[in-house]
Write a sequence for this structure.
């Protein structure tokens, strides 16, 4: 789809109509595809939860067009939050802030806070502006499964349950936004989920440290240990030679085995080699597609060598740890 062409305009018009009528539209963002509903329409948000199969009470992020929309949803914007918004929006950063009554219980899960983000994708920014409101949007996958990074992924996962899929091409970042809780008055911001913006970038923008989750579990509510899981069993092994040996032994015991590594390696006989990318950024961009690929290939086991815990590699390792916990066996 080309920006600004007639087909895009027609799609955007249709999307706005659907959203105003309480329907669901899958939207491209730079992180992953989202499943969007009118954040001000409780019935539409309830349908969103139903389609995702997500337990009620998990808060969802409201996507807005820019900083100027903050006062509608956030009752207070601390200095740190404003700095982060100015530094990283539009971009892969979600801010948790005290909510206004406009951010209803359906969206916030009854919390006193709301998650807000300005996604960095021209099509979705144009949609939010034309819609003239906030879009409640979790990732456009069924609960617990791998987040979609292409329009085709969304269609494969959600099928007819989504009224329209806006195709904005493959997602550039490939893992979800960094969630930073700025709601605690006087306390330093807390990174609840590592993501597309790194802790180092956040601290550089603020000029002071934040609370991090170094390789530990993300702490956003509703983020279960088991999440982002393909059907294949995911086994994370740091060291390449050990990973190759493990893959070999799984294959020898008759399991359909894959080996996902940053750089190409020579896989043992019977093992399918998959490559993610040799930088943290390229690994992140490829990660979810490779997890889906494991399912397309019908693999029983996927042995994974993760990227180093640097930059967006921290987010990749977080998602891999969850995929490993959520494995079928
Ligand atoms: O990159 C992203 O963030 C993608 C795209 C579509 O924007 N969205 C996404 O949404 O990952 P979802 O629903 O899959 O994850 C949102 C996370 C949830 O784990 C939820 O716990 C957290 O955001 N969250 C939302 N509102 C919150 C709040 N008020 N307090 C704490 N956490 C919140
Ligand atoms: Mg999700």
């Amino acid at each position: 789809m080309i920006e600004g062409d007639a087909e895009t305009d027609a799609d955007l018009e249709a999307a706005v109509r659907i959203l105003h009528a309480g329907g669901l539209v899958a939207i491209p963002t730079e992180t992953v595809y989202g499943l969007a509903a009118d954040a001000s329409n409780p019935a539409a948000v309830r349908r969103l939860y139903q389609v995702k199969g997500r337990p009620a009470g998990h808060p969802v992020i409201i996507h807005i067009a820019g900083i100027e929309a903050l006062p509608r949803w956030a009752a207070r914007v601390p200095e740190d939050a404003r700095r982060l918004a100015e530094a990283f929006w539009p971009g892969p950063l979600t801010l948790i802030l005290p909510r206004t009554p406009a951010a209803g219980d359906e969206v916030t899960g009854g919390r006193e806070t709301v998650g807000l983000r300005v996604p960095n994708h021209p099509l979705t920014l144009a949609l939010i502006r034309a819609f003239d409101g906030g879009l409640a949007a979790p990732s456009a996958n069924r609960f617990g499964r791998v987040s979609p990074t292409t329009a085709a992924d969304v269609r494969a996962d959600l099928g007819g349950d989504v009224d329209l899929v806006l195709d904005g091409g493959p997602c550039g970042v490939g893992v979800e936004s960094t969630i930073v809780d700025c709601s605690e008055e006087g306390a330093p911001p807390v990174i609840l989920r590592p993501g597309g913006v790194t802790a180092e970038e956040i601290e550089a923008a603020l000029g002071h440290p934040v609370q991090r989750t170094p390789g530990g579990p993300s702490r956003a509510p509703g983020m279960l240990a088991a999440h982002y899981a393909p059907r294949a069993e995911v086994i994370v092994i740091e060291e390449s030679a050990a990973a190759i040996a493990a893959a070999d032994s799984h294959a020898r015991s008759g399991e359909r085995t894959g080996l996902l590594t940053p750089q190409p390696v020579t896989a043992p006989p019977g093992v399918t080699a998959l490559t993610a990318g040799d930088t943290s950024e390229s690994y992140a961009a490829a990660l979810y597609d490779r997890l889906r690929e494991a399912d397309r290939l019908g693999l029983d086991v996927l042995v994974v060598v993760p990227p180093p815990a640097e930059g967006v590699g921290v987010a990749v390792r977080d998602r891999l740890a969850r995929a490993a916990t959520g494995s079928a066996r």
